[in-house]
Amino acid sequence: MHIVIEEPLHSDGRGGVAVYNRRMIRLISEMDPENQYSLFTYCWNLKPEVKKRVTPPEGARWKHWHAGWPERLLRPLEWNVGIPIIESHLKFGGADLYHAHRIPASKSLPLVTTVYDLFSVVHPEWTSSWMTQLFEEIVRPGLDRVERIMAISTQTKTDLIERWNVPEEKIEVILWGVDRELFKPLSEEILAPIRKKYDLPELYFVLVGPFDPWSDPRPSIRALAKLPDAALVMAGPHGSCYEDAQRLAAQLGVADRCRWLGHVPQPELVGIYNAARGLLFASGYEGFGLPTLEAMACGTPVITSNSSALPEVAGGAAILVDHDSDEQILAGMTDLLDNGKHADLREKGLARAAALTWEDTARKTLAVYKNALAGR
Hints:
Blueprint: E1 2-6, H1 16-31, E2 36-42, H2 48-54, E3 62-67, H3 71-81, H4 85-92, E4 97-100, E5 111-115, H5 119-122, H6 129-142, E6 148-151, H7 154-164, E7 171-173, H8 188-198, E8 204-208, H9 218-224, E9 231-235, H10 242-251, E10 258-262, H11 266-275, E11 278-281, H12 290-297, E12 302-305, H13 310-314, E13 319-321, H14 326-336, H15 339-355, H16 358-374
Helix pairs in contact: 1-16, 8-11, 9-14, 12-15
């Protein structure tokens, strides 16, 4: 059997969706030597950095399959006119099952999909018209055509049932994992050059962007203004809140205690996590929230939101706060300054991260593939 997984190429490859796709295609192909696997992409211009990202490493048991279609033409022809371009191409290439992210308009192959969140449905005020249109015109009607929907959290499953009336029996919750070979506690010897490179403060809390309205850093900056001696380190794309956050920090007199690092490569982000007193991941909505697990795997205590999927992912191993309450965020930061509470959350976080693995995600995903193929 030839199983094809779509990589939608809608991000720069640093986000959770791209991490998930790369982990699944590698692990599942290794776990299932009987079947053939391909990572499918389509776009007119496959940039060198993208091609490098999706090219199989030497000795890998999967192939990269690319179609050079212009998105601006494919989208209206496939989903507005109903011409079955994607499935015709896949069938011609010998595909037997398609794990789609943008579900084809026609169905002649077994289809499964992963739904990460219903962000544009739950919070349309925080999303683009392009994303809202994608969900309403492609994702929502496409769910009727798939054999199985994999939700990455119970929150996403709940949203699918309550917002779109998707039958519960069609949805399987498969939680994500964390790469514990990469995200792990590091020695001070390894941390020293990272501290020097980024000129890290002695005592800081790390925030991971992008810093857009759902992950607005301003409540954390207001909390910082009431906590002497500590600092905030912002890692990741600046986002739309960057300028307002900078102005607020200047008004509160804490600009010198707010560091904006921009994108940090993952091997160095591990060091940023390790050296931090804690992770502040007070996001207003997440389908999962991978940074919480990454920090926990590094032994870094976590303060995260008490809403969306974040309490489920934290699993009782984090301090939960209202995402826009500077008072609750301040209380969480103050708790982590207590050595006893810090040590307790560190151990709980390490245990939680050890319980969620990409290998388990891959095994459960493979079971979904086999069930879908068995029902042909």
